[in-house]
User: Fold this.
Amino acid sequence: MGNIIYLDNAATTKTAPEVVEAMLPYFSECYGNASSIYSLGAESKKAITRARETIADVLGTKANEIYFTAGGSESDNWALKATAEAYGTDGTDNAAGVRGHIITSKIEHHAILHTCEYLEKHGFEVTYLPVDENGLVSPKDVEEAIRDNTILISIMFANNEIGTIEPIKEIGEIAKKHHILFHTDAVQAFGQLPIRVDDLNIDMLSASGHKLNGPKGIGFLYIRTGIKIRSFVHGGQQERGRRAGTENITGIVGLEAAVKRAYRIMEEKTKKEIELRDYLINRLETEIPYCRLNGDRVKRLPNNVNFSFEFIEGESLLIKLDMEGICASSGSACTSGSLDPSHVLLAIGLPHEKAHGSLRLTLSEENTKEEIDKTVEVIKQTVEYLRSMSPLYEDFLKKQRS
Assistant:
């Protein structure tokens, strides 16, 4: 595909060579079904057990609390729907027929928001908490939203669009104090930030392999022992009877290798990404007028840069970047085909016209300062060109001169 500058690591990451190498034997050598009793199947079962132990170790939990899934969206669906089923009522215990209450935020990934909408249609009430201008959920708002029938709080660890890291420890403490289950969508944070579930009072956590240089189609859900989460996929005894279906051995092995790699290089990777991130932010802010950094400046993922540029359409900017071999996005990859402005940017208070002019750049440890410099130059030239054709920008300049 030629030389590209890849700056969309929040959407997906390149599978690391050592991850591919770890997976290869499980395609054609150790290919047995883990549910089989013969030795070939036993090798696959050992690999699954080892991967579970690796993930449990970095989270500070037990291996039997890790359940493999097809990815973050499935894990989110499982956490919410199974909690609702297990802890909700039939609605006959109250006049309104409400089966239970869930607390989440307005800036969650659509895997959470759409699942909440589904549950609302099935008798549950959902409170969608607002965020401040930096995308932070207020722990005070969380506590004030709690009702007698609240069964779950689900707040993402870090936002996939603007990179804001939420006050998870404080929210976890509130949930524990009120004896309410706490789930976090950690798809963007796991592998980027150190996470210990007991320290943060997390009861359930979702993660996905392809966000940390692992393969696509594999993820996991951490479920604390004692939680009454029921089967999500029926038809077999895999995942201790909670998720039926032949295990994705190659994906699980790849996920384990990716987790090992992520935690081995985390400190060095974080340092480099923050340096490049801050350099990129500084250049854009100082060299392009009428732009805005979206998300918290400090409580931010190491690799996330999200800007809104006034008087332009983000899609036009993305097309020009693509023509120059630069991969970027305007927000979540799961909504990239939508013409609607980002729900996250609207939630932090941006008007529609500014939200439409957004650009998300997410780095990796492989990016270089030279790549960042080229990207900034292309953005500068493109923004200037697009504004030169904008009657709104022309009117704005006239008002500024008068």
